[in-house]
Automatic annotation (TrEMBL):
<dbReference type="GO" id="GO:0034354">
    <property type="term" value="P:'de novo' NAD+ biosynthetic process from L-tryptophan"/>
</dbReference>
<dbReference type="GO" id="GO:0005829">
    <property type="term" value="C:cytosol"/>
</dbReference>
<dbReference type="InterPro" id="IPR014729">
    <property type="entry name" value="Rossmann-like_a/b/a_fold"/>
</dbReference>
<dbReference type="InterPro" id="IPR036526">
    <property type="entry name" value="C-N_Hydrolase_sf"/>
</dbReference>
<comment type="subunit">
    <text>Homohexamer.</text>
</comment>
<keyword id="KW-0067">ATP-binding</keyword>
<dbReference type="Pfam" id="PF02540">
    <property type="entry name" value="NAD_synthase"/>
</dbReference>
<protein>
    <recommendedName>
        <fullName>Glutamine-dependent NAD(+) synthetase</fullName>
        <ecNumber>6.3.5.1</ecNumber>
    </recommendedName>
</protein>
<dbReference type="InterPro" id="IPR022310">
    <property type="entry name" value="NAD/GMP_synthase"/>
</dbReference>
<dbReference type="Pfam" id="PF00795">
    <property type="entry name" value="CN_hydrolase"/>
</dbReference>
<keyword id="KW-0520">NAD</keyword>
<dbReference type="GO" id="GO:0005524">
    <property type="term" value="F:ATP binding"/>
</dbReference>
<keyword id="KW-0547">Nucleotide-binding</keyword>
<dbReference type="GO" id="GO:0004359">
    <property type="term" value="F:glutaminase activity"/>
</dbReference>
<feature type="domain" description="CN hydrolase">
    <location>
        <begin position="5"/>
        <end position="275"/>
    </location>
</feature>
<comment type="similarity">
    <text>In the C-terminal section; belongs to the NAD synthetase family.</text>
</comment>
<dbReference type="InterPro" id="IPR003010">
    <property type="entry name" value="C-N_Hydrolase"/>
</dbReference>
Amino acid sequence: MGRAVTVATCALNQWALDFEGNLERIFRSIDIAKSKGARYRLGPELEICGYGCSDHYYESDTLLHSFQVLEKLLESPATQDIICDVGMPVLHRNVRYNCRVIFLNKKILLIRPKISLANGGNYRELRWFTPWSKARHVEEYFLPRIIQEVTGQETVPFGDAVLATKDTCLGAEICEELWAPNSPHIEMGLDGVEIFTNSSGSHHVLRKAHTRVDLVNSATAKNGGIYILANQKGCDGDRLYYDGCAMISMNGETVAQGSQFSLDDVEVLVATLDLEDVRSYRAEISSRNLAASKVNPYPRVKVNFALSCPDDVAVPTCMPIQWRHHSPEEEISLGPACWLWDYLRRSKQAGFLLPLSGGIDSSATACIVYSMCRQVCLAVKNGNADVLADARRIVNDETYIPEDPRELCKRVFTTCYMASENSSQDTCNRAKLLAEQIGSYHINLNIDAAVKAVVGIFSVVTGRTPRFSVYGGSSRESLALQNVQARIRMVLAYLFAQLALWARGMPGGLLVLGSANVDESLRGYLTKYDCSSADINPIGGISKTDLKNFIQYCIENFQLTALRSIMSAPPTAELEPLVDGQVAQTDEADMGMTYAELSVYGKLRKIAKAGPYSMFCKLINMWKEICTPREVASKVKHFFRMYSVNRHKMTTLTPSYHAENYSPDDNRFDLRPFLYNTSWSWQFRCIDKQVNAL
């Protein structure tokens, strides 16, 4: 009868504009799918050119090279006898669309353009593409000559249609369409589509994976059916990490789960499922069947091919499984680590350099690099030849086999404690002990000579010598002296990144890692062009609260006991003079707010879209047990003053791993002015009026 269908989906580590590498990974996924008996293979969104091409989508070269890759796929024997569903940009009647190109045995069956474009947060698809607005409408697409010569087709169907094979019916969704309130799978399911596919370019955010899984499962829970999701994975050239999680679901339950974080460039999931389970599930949902009897039908592209075999009664089918979600601490340990590995190997550098202060933020960054080394060793142990080849190239040793994370850390990770006369022995010892436990190559240096030289130049020119406030100087003098120390550390970090390996007789340079967390960036509690200015920052999208929990996770799971004293110490910049040899400066006192409060402000400002007045109105209820309305007003005003005064710093913020939806990243996620009227006179007057009324 033909009831057991075998389908494959994948997570591919594609790279924007890496047509050669992208083609090779697509071929590998098809080979794996066929070897496991699959008759249909689904890939991620825009997998041919890579999702993150941004304004390169405007270039005709991107379209040309995408079709050249498609030509290679069509003419290859590897793509025979399997329906292949690949993603690429297509220009139709001078309009650019984000498309799925579905083909079988050198014939294009359908080009399906995306209907709902992602255009919020990190996504700007409406900048480059136009949504297909003609529901259930198909037009003729005239193929380029290079494709015509392979397929023998002059035109192919282009539009909103579904595929009707000998045994079932398939309909495509593309990423955002699953998240839309009027998802196509609803109407397609009512029209008899039994297999839904979704090719995604969905990035990692802490605590987001369950939302995606729930959406996929709910897509078939009410309507029945099989749902197949493919996703991009890895760093394809910017701040986002695409977190895989390819999956297959049937009738509201997961039957196959892909990894969320791994160093495998190609991961393929294959499942065999019984179509009769879909049909019997739908049979008893009377409300669904009543709606189905009135649905407007989709155009069907007939395909002379079956996803099942005629004699398949004895073929075993997949059973539901329980999805395992990572904890937020595991996500921090794995996501940024995989992102760093992609950045390191693709930038062709020899490792990382981190200014290690002995505080929570830089220590958390060091732990992420150590976690990366653990992942590399594990991947090599599991036989990942790509990771082994990359590791050997990075360390410049063709015989090297990474087995011990600490030993690999020694080769690729340099940490540097930059002491000043304002640094305590405690932070120096903490940094040194952590470096020993993770295995990094550790440098101790003192910046006092450089600070005195820079301040000396100012004194010679002006005849004035600035002093810290504890020595009678003004707050302006004190802040300037703190900033000089911070900026000199940045200059030295880059000097050592370029020449530290040269001094050791080794080739290559190092990438400088920043370690400002998302809350400090939001408040602007950092010196512009200090050590927060780096090549990349793995924790720039993570809150202080989550970083503390991550440090505790590392103590328990990586046995890094040096972190205990780091956890218990109050966060401090150590830029002001010590008092009796002890640190007198603390971050929260300097900021005038706690890190916990900052997280609340950040979520209300960005996620809840609250301005000063709305934030005040929300907080007088949230904090009614601990603050009076007047105290809340004072806190809100102080936050917005400091946020707006320092917003200009976000324009030069180091590219950071995106992990939080309240990130203040000015590049494309959080678009705001950087020159504000910092008095907020009208807004604050509204707050004062409400305070007086209360």
